[in-house]
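Lecture 7 notes: from sequence to structure.
We start with the chain below.
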Amino acid sequence: MAGEAAAPTGTEPDALGNGAGPATGDGRAAASPTELPEHVADTGDRVPDLRRPDHRGHAFSLYEHHIGRPLVLLALTGDDAADRVALAAIVGEPTAGPTGLVEDPGLAVVAPPGVDPATVVPAPGRVPALADDGTVARLLGADLGTGPRLVVLDAGRRVVANLAAPSGVDAAGPSDTVRRLLAGWPAGTGGAAGSDGPVRTSAAPLLIVPHVLDPQLCAELIDHRETTGDEPSRVHRMVDGELALVEDPSVKVRRDHTVTEPLVVHELARLLHRRLVPEMARTFGYVPGSFERFKLVRYDAGAPGDAGAGRFTTHRDNATADVAHRRFALTLVLDDGYEGGELHFPEHGPDRYRPPAGAALVFPCSVAHEVLPVTAGTRHVLITFFADAPRADAPAAPRS
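Predicted structure tokens for the same chain:
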């Protein structure tokens, strides 16, 4: 039986690469006509570990400072007047003491490129100031001529917001701004050992990454599926001695639309490479070489116990010869307007998983899982499967 998506068509999987271009007619991705410019870290992007000397000459690591908790970076520009205003608003006046950001969630200041961080450190011993050769300024957008930047990072060092400082701060102050942003961010606050989090004795081997897709793109993808239509999803069955794809509502009740539009494929591939692939490398030690064509799928609601309720019974995503090359499965959640429909991994305990809209859930294709019946609304997700580099001997599968 195939996984949450139908099997790939007879084409090779699309190539996954930085700046990968639109898919060509044979299913591979064409090279981008131009190199993407250096981008500023934006919402959902992971900031790399910024290893820089601080104002004391000590080595500073972004990933080792304030581990497991959010962190705020204030990137200065070298414009003395603008930097002083930002420091006063974000860090606090020397005579009045530091703002709440210094202690909670935590704060670090990035000195202007080439400036000794000891000359800008606002609260010695409490707020580290980091040296920069210009790399961090470019990454955070402090070189764009828009003034200092306030960059809010979650516990995993993903960007929650990248704001102008202090003009992008609420009237109530920077602490309230940051707390408001983190309150609306999945898993934004992290937590230290001994907190009130649940104690688990087992867990499924999966990864959840928030904000891979923004709300506007999620809505556009749902609209795209509704405009272009879909068809009943199928599962693998032996028919007259040959493997075929057939409808079987006792196993899967779902409708699928295969995404073939080059610009849509290109944008999705770009976002996966930018926001998801680094997380897979960090968590699983795996960088995918290819992915199957994206499918926009929907599970419609049914009454409790209704055989017509959208669902997919327990299965593995690489259980037949034609899909044995699959390594990891991806589900990208597009909306929250449904009940039921959680993912469950019966080999790994009773927990049910329901990431928020825009989030990605990744797990090995060898792990048994099911989509529980949708009891209200419609569950919209985007799915694909990751594999190693495309192979010349990859088997052709029946068309869905």
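Points to note: The chain has five helices and 24 strands. The mean pLDDT is 82.
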